[in-house]
Amino acid sequence: MRPLAPALLLSLLAALSTALGCSRGQAEDLLEQVRDDDYRSNYARAPGWPDPQQPGFGPHGGFVDIYVNEVVSEAIEAGEPLSAWPEGSIIVKDGWEDADAEALRYVAIMEKRGGGEWFWAEYEEDDSVAYAGLDLSTCTGCHSSGEDQVRAFGLP
Ligand code: HEC
């Protein structure tokens, strides 16, 4: 069983860092989760962002794809006026350098946690975590001007 030991140790460390609330570990888990969901195929495109690689206005790459998970889609379909996106909402943004989506610049994710706060994460093209955290000022500085801190589209 010896060869298993390093892998086991690594997964224990990962579990521990998540348990301790390490933002980086949580961001890694979140990226894994949306990839397991196959977000590029299974999530809806955000309202107002129907086209692949639409020109973006933020710092996340010149051309963006913005996807929303089921929780957001269902809230939009229900159409009830909301003052905040529900817990479990996830928005994923692929930011590309080019209109042909050959060079990925950043992947950015927002996840609505209990207590009404967003967890923010941004990743380099090699998946390393550039920024991560709850209510992160690096992100909210720009995002606070949006409805419930979402810049690309408004609340129902
Ligand atoms: C300089 C301003 C600015 C900063 C700083 C910024 N964003 Fe954004 N972000 C935007 C704009 C503008 C959009 C709308 C889409 C676009 O134009 O690219 C956006 C869109 C997004 C989206 C799609 C959902 C939405 O809110 O529209 C995500 C996810 C996102 N940003 C994550 C982040 C994360 C994570 C950080 C911090 C690491 C961050 N952003 C920092 C300006 C900013």
TrEMBL record:
Keywords: Signal. It comes from the Bacteria. CDD domains: cyt_P460_fam. Residues 39-147 form the Cytochrome P460 domain. Residues 1-27 form the signal peptide. InterPro entries: Cytochrome_P460, Cytochrome_P460_sp. This is Cytochrome P460 domain-containing protein. It comes from Plesiocystis pacifica SIR-1.
